[in-house]
Design goal:
This is Sterol desaturase family protein. It holds the Pfam family FA_hydroxylase. By secondary structure, the protein is mostly helical. It has one domain. Helix 4 runs antiparallel to helix 5. The longest helix is centred in the first third of the chain and has 34 residues. About 20% of the residues are buried.
Length: about 170
Amino acid sequence: MYEIKELSSLIILVMTIIAGLLYSSLIEYCLHRFLLHNSYEQEHVKVHHKVFHGIDSYELEVIDKETVLSSFGEILRNIVLYLPLAIVIFMRSKFLGILFLIVCILYNMWEEFVHYYFHKRNEHLFVLKLKLFNKLKEHHRIHHYMYRYNFGIGTRLWDVIFGTIKKVR
């Protein structure tokens, strides 16, 4: 009986982590697609996509962090968007609610990290050798070349689900 309870607790723990990753990556996808890429006239598209247009200037030695990283306000906005679901979970289990929020914030940090190193040339960083990183980097490079596709930064999942994925052959 005790083993079944432990197993169900483990399943709930893993499901909470998966839910946090899915939710935070969906928030990232939706904000990137619907808020930052409404039209070509938006500041993000005009500035960020002009500097890093995806052909010969996608990766630079020196970059302005403000054009690559989210501002403190944007990160705070993301956390506020994670809170409603985190609070609902928290009402059932304080531990799981906090875990969910931590997973969402960690995903947000992953997204910021990889986005920075998609654009900042650095041959010495260990993550650059990972297959996952390089697949995401190419996915994002195509986004800069064709800004109506490949909105996911930390994952390609939602581009696949919503049919906005584009591969260059």
